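Let's do one together. I've listed all components of the complex below, 534 residues spread over three lines.
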Amino acid sequence: MTTPLDGNALGGALGELFTVDITAAIARCAGCQHTGPVAELVVYASAPGTIARCPSCDQVLVRLVRSPDRAWLDLRGVSVIELAVPSPA
Amino acid sequence: MAIVSRGFTGRGRSIGPELPPGQYLTTDFPVLSAGPTPRVRTESWQLTIRTETGQSSTLDWAALTALPGEDITADLHCVTKWSKLGTAWRGVSLDTLLGEVDTAADYALIGCYGGYTTNLPTQDLLDGQAWVAYRYDGEDIPPEHGGPARLLVPHLYLWKSAKWLRSIELSDEDTPGFWESVGYHTYGDPWREQRYWGD
Amino acid sequence: MARAAVLGRLTWHVGTVRAVRAETPWARTIVLDVPGWPGHLAGQHVDVRLTAPDGYQAQRSYSIASAADGERVELTVELVPDGEVSPYLVSVLEVGDLLELRGPVGGWFVWRPGTPDPVLLVAGGSGLVPLMAMLRTRAASGSAAPFHLLYSVREPAAALYADELPTLGVPVSYLFTRRTPPGTRRPIGRISLLDLPAGFTPDRHPSVYACGPTGFVEAAADLLTTAGHDAQRIRTERFGPTGGNP
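Okay, and this is what the predicted structure of the assembly comes out as:
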């Protein structure tokens, strides 16, 4: 069960923490500078937490752990993330 | 508050009195992974042990398997709530491995092929509590279960039983490992249900 | 209708099953009424959570099959061998039952009507589900954007939406991998360069959406970039090894 998914699989869990959609956000890998949408990250979701890796260099970009009432998010592998913030109509 | 799904029971499991709190008994052996499965050949396998004084020793596969081995029966408790009882392994006790090592260090940082790490007090590696396992159920350990060799520390949650073992770094400082640095408990005693920070 | 890109955290909704519809011997569509549903875009998915009486929980993601329609959400679920959640959804869940879902999820793998670009849809097995939402949304909106569906599936009996696809006014190419209907010209086999349709060549700058098992999506994406399609115009959604998490 180590066939990975992609960053679309992060959308639900991160959607509980962020008020904007994260899958379309653009992230830059702190390791190799590869830049692309979170939707294209390589995701391992069967661990004690969810891990997203760079599709180019495999470095860990995102670590997410959930307990019933807390979330821990480690984004040290992301040097910058660009989000679209919709303006009110 | 989640609603109960009528008629849903999930995979075969039961709750037994001999299980730590919050655990379910399973007969499967789930594979959980944070990345691609490392493929390490025993021809190039090495275990490096580094002490707090900078001394280091390295074992290759022949050296590991030449050490006195033990048959181990272990109950496994994963923090994701499944427990698997009575698993059969063969491996070398950390008492044997660390017996020749000159150290007074309080902590160990375990390193693995593929980059995974976990930390635990040196004390929890000793006194018959931990092994470097190289056989499961009478066979070579399959890569997805941590082969060729993994750490086995059954008295702590299974994330401490690091797969694809590669190094043991002994230190006076406690460095949180891969999961311990993002919410999982530093120690991880299943019998006190120490899953997350602050538990 | 509220746009799905609304500021706010995703939370769990409770839907009621209003209808179930067998699609194939291995898949069925579940029609839910979800009070408070904010609407959704074609391509988005939901996370479904099941809870056993002893508190045990299992969670899986399923693509929304329907076009946005008030509080109505349709999911098409295919049985995964040795699965934990799909057997419950395909065989146990019945009309009147409650189902917890979180969503709508996703802002990348979506198609918005009003985009005039040609669209090439590439589906592997149950990967057709989110692409069906796109086809239905296109039909409901009256969009004239040229679409073509490439649908890789093992055999005719396993093909989803077989009756509805011909009614959508969009060419559908079936790529059977194990068994074909008699008289079919295309031999059994996985997707190849020969399957890419004329009229959707790179110079037309189509948007491409590929969805299905991880292996299928990666093979399809490689094929498309080999054929000269701009990687930036290919959007993908991977379902894991068997087309769905077990």
